[in-house]
Amino acid sequence: MNPNRLRAYFYLILVAAIWGAAGPIIKFTLEGLDPLPFLSYRFAIASALSLVFFAVKLKKGKKFRRLKANFSLAFVYGLLAVPIALGILFIGLDKTTVLDLTLIGVAGPLLVTAGGVHFFHDRITKRERIGILVVLAGVVLNSFFPIFKAGSSLKLTGNLLLLVFLAADASSILIAKKAVQKGIKSSNLTSLAFIIGAVTIIPLTLIVHGPNNLIFTLANLPLKYHLGVWYMALLSGSLAYYLYVRGQRSIEVSEAVLFNYLQPFFMIPLAVFWLGEKLSGSFFVGAIIIATGLVIVEYKKLSKK
User: Fold this and answer.
1) For the EamA domain, which residue ranges apply (predicted)?
2) 91 near 161, Cβ under 8 Å?
3) 120's torsion region: left (phi>0), alpha (psi -120 to 50) or beta?
4) What is the model's pLDDT at position 305?
């Protein structure tokens, strides 16, 4: 196998493990910290590292010519990937469960696949189209199931926000692929994205919560929640985003997003055994429908192997 492709696979498997654990860690940390302060704290850490990164590069004489020439593209990526997508994810997950995120999140790679067909001329067969429709049916069923349960309007709102998150996240992945094709280094792209996140979210948090209240909250935050924020900032943030963009260099967009399907193998056990979430009948129904659709989508690839 091509060494570059093998390296890309390793990066993307590692990202799947990091992001698979991220959902439960976000949910756990939100028990002690509201979404906006959580995001501000996380982006403050990540953006500080990003500023150090750019300062060191500038000192070494780096000109960032490709980043400057395509700054508007990089800016749109950063805005979508960090403050918009992550902001919606945190707010949505605060209102619903990690298990719902597990099923709803399956639609993300399919949205990217559809975008890859349109923007990068990736090929998709009739069988794959059918499979995608089946998966989306399962995702929609799971998302709107709270309508049929009394007192679940909050969870429905959270599920709908997760769908919006997927749309924003899929768009950012496609833009990242375009940016990498134009020669922007993944490290530059992700570093700029977290600076954009800090510049947009921290002022909003100060307005909503007030400076004194925010400082008091963070100063009195238990260590276990601090660790959750640092995990999201360093591992799920800077490292995972860098590896994800780097992993896309050697393989197609539609192939790279397939590694997202590995995330539930890390996410579901943590949700059940750590957070104590319950596997409901609707979860199993949605999972069966979605799994059927994924088998249809990937049948041809699997048969070739």
Assistant:
1) 7-143, 157-297
2) yes
3) alpha
4) 45
SS3 content of the chain, % helix, strand, coil (to 5): 85, 0, 15
Integer Cα distance of 196 and 49 in angstroms: 13
């990068």: which residue's tokens? Answer: 120
**Residue 260 · residue 108 · CB < 8 Å:** yes
d(CA 232, CA 281): 31
Q: Look at 269 and 143; give whichever has higher pLDDT.
A: 269
pLDDT of residue 248: 72
Side-chain-side CA neighbours of residue 255 (13 Å): 14
Give the span between the Cα atoms of 110 and 169, in whole angstroms. 12
Q: Which two tokens stand for residue 51?
A: 């500023």
Compute φ and ψ for 161, nearest 5 degrees: -65, -35
Residues 44 and 33: their CA atoms lie apart, in Å, by 15
- pTM for the full model? 0.83
